[in-house]
Amino acid sequence: MTFRIILALSCVVALWGLPRPLAAFETQASSAFVIDHTTGTVLLAKEADVPLPPASMSKLMTLYVAFEAVRDGRLKLDERLRVSDHAMSYGGSTLFLQAGERVRVEDLLRGIIVLSGNDACAVIAETLSPDGTEAGFSRFMTERAREMGMRHATFANASGWPDPRHRMSMRDLAILAARIIEDFPEFYEMFAEKEFLFDETEAQNRTNRNPLLGLGIGADGLKTGHTQEAGYGLVGSVKQGERRIIFVISGLQTEQARAREAEAITNWAFRHFRQAELLKQDEIVAQAAVWMGTAAEVPLRAAAPVVTLVPAGGGATVQAEVVYDGPLRAPVMQGDRVGKLILRPEGLEPVEVPLLADKTVELGGVMVRLKTASQRVIRQLLAGAEGAF
């Protein structure tokens, strides 16, 4: 039987001081996902799990695989890679690479990050591909993305070039951005570079298209994207103080609309939410019933302190629910994961917290088990008797 304990709101309010929710942000993007990276709080999800054309934002996956290769020694930053005819054939945003020339890996990475070079992506792809082709690299990226939790990611190429098979969700892109920030801090600073002049004779493509980088608001990444099908999009990250947000927007109609929406989301995420500690370390949340144990109940505590974002402002409203399958069967060992706490601040996605047994409850002796069994029989008999009338 699943037990559900709804904690009294008055108790929750007195303990955690949660504020009144504010209205959800009305984004002009056709799809969007905003998460507070520091606490893991999802602030906005609009069509966030729909597979969509990601355009050049999917270059982040090519970069992630390249970063892994540099870290494990399969690529070296000062190594020079040969440009193939296939890589040279790409149009759109490029480094104007010529077939047969050799380019440093570090320049290729910067060319992808800052200049969104489609040709640079193809050079990296063919070098790291299991079969030497961009198609083979795309299949490998798809497998790697699924391993990382990107459930809707399917890659047809390394650059985001339009293809009906090339799809990612906004949540996928946020997962990928977070992994780049966490796993490769030594490379992440490249994403904040506003300019990279690869070839003085082709200086028209030299500036980073991320509209937030020059605003002085803490923006330091990650990648823009645009195709006719996808519209204008951005995977962005901004750090202010101890907080960092990651957001993904797509489907904007113009470059200017993308810039306005990115700045508006940043202002909203930092000005209208505050960080709150909902549960302290080892705080007891509830008592769970125990079957056949030396004690009738066991205290439940959160597996870790719970820190999340809540809307800034006055008032208080939240629902907290303890869920466990019970009564728990003895023996219950201290530290066993026996249930979960679900916190539902209005206007935000629920937060689930594992609950652990705070102490050990041993299996009761013969007398305890006889008493428990007899009580159960009596309850069944009484229930049957009541049903007979």
Protein architecture, described:
This protein has 389 residues and is of the alpha+beta class. It folds into two domains: 2-17 and 277-371, Sandwich (Peptidoglycan synthesis regulatory factor (PBP3), Domain 2), CATH 2.60.410; 31-271, Beta-lactamase. Helix content is 30%, strand content 27%. It is built from ten helices and 16 strands. The strands form four sheets. A seven-stranded mixed β-sheet has the order 1-13-15-16-11-10-14, covered by helices on one side. The protein has a five-stranded antiparallel β-sheet with strand order 3-2-8-7-6, sandwiched between helices. Strand 15 and strand 16 form a beta hairpin. Helix 2 (59-71) crosses helix 5 (118-128). The relative contact order is 0.16. Residues 8-22 have low confidence and may be disordered.
Write the layout of secondary structure elements.
Elements: E1 2-6, H1 9-16, E2 31-36, E3 41-46, H2 59-71, E4 80-82, H3 85-88, E5 102-104, H4 105-113, H5 118-128, H6 134-147, H7 170-183, H8 185-188, E6 219-227, E7 231-240, E8 243-252, H9 255-271, E9 273-279, E10 284-291, E11 297-302, E12 306-311, E13 318-325, E14 328-329, E15 337-345, E16 351-357, H10 366-388
Parallel strand pairs: 10-14
Antiparallel strand pairs: 1-13, 2-3, 2-8, 4-5, 6-7, 7-8, 9-12, 10-11, 11-16, 13-15, 15-16
